[in-house]
Amino acid sequence: MTQDRDHSENDIALAGEYALHLLDAESRLAFETRLAQDTALQQLVREWDEDFVSFSEGFAPVTPPARMKSQIDARLFGPEKSGFSLQGLFGRRFAYLAFASLAALAIIAGPVVFNTATAPEYVAEIAGEDRSLVVAAAYDQETAELSINRTAGAAIAGRSLELWLIAEGATAPVSLGVLSDAQLATVIIPEDLRDLMLGGTLAISDEPIGGSPTGAPTGAVLAAGEIISS
Amino acid sequence: MTSIADIENMIVRTGLGDRAAFSDLYNATSAKLFGVCLRVLNNRAEAEDALQDVFVKIWQKASGYAVNGYSPMTWLITVARNLSIDRLRARKAPAKTIDEAHDLADSSPTPEMAMVQKSERAQIDGCLDELDQGHAMAVRGAYLDGETYQDLADRAGVPINTMRTWLRRSLVKLKDCLSR
Prior knowledge:
heterodimer; A: 230 residues; alpha+beta; Immunoglobulin-like; 6-stranded antiparallel β-sheet; 4-stranded antiparallel β-sheet; 5 helices; B: 180 residues; mainly alpha; Rna Polymerase Sigma Factor, Chain: A; Arc Repressor Mutant, subunit A; 2 domains; 80% helix; globular; RskA_C (chain A); membrane (chain A); Anti-sigma-K/W_factor (chain A); Regulator of SigK (chain A)
């Protein structure tokens, strides 16, 4: 028996133990670390999950209590509020939403002076349909600074507003960071995104404190606007 | 009647942040997933908490669904089972009393349930039949009741390392049979 075969039998058993939840906490964590970067291992686990799932086919469905869905919505989306959703924006533009890399950007709060000698070249008004949230944005190509001026609206209590760039023809929205409570802020746009600003759309979504945990928008899109040449 | 393709579509749209699709997905699958949580946890209040976690996780992870290669119900059921077992393990973490051990052991399926299971599990059951009966029981106990190696070893009256060796060998044999 070759080394390879031993290795794969070990992994077959290990993946099965993982799928059955038989590994102790330490082994499980070690396995998950490997799993994150080993597609062959991911496939083994997936095969086991598909094999074992037939055990659950006989589990009787039980209707959960009616209050359950609103409790889940409250956990995910915060208290019920009126307002509109621009969710379709993401849906229309992206057939496949891949894992978006979460650009962990600090947003520097501070005074921003608009309309100075070096007038920004690109501007956007990021607004909701009912204008309950309005943010003016101006992008200076030379300094790669996006200046933000939130003129109406704020994050709801216990939630954050997250800013996203949806580049034209891009595969996924990219986070530009979480907006601070300050009215004015400046975001330095990362180098790989700078050429994507013009024609792109800036959008603001409602997220858990600190921003989306997934790297993709998880809450309602509260405002959006296209970046145009000024 | 909601088809598998419908469910898949709902998951993908949920991944795009579509709340209406998320509600449709909840309506179509929550009873099945609650059944999974109840079966693993055997406790209604805990199963309700688990089901909330399940749908929060589905909302958060749905954007990765398209690339993970899972069939839709397997993905949903696996999320439900994994989160329920996490809860089960957290419950069992403190030194467990004999009473608790009894509670957990008492979760055999009703005759009606057992019949449905039997009719729909032909392939994996066929392969489990090729294993030593005690080993097959251990695989079922691990999946159906979320039993740990310790539970399985206690039940079979063997040391934990013996149970681990049995089960790992059984998994390799089972895999071989299932891929035939």
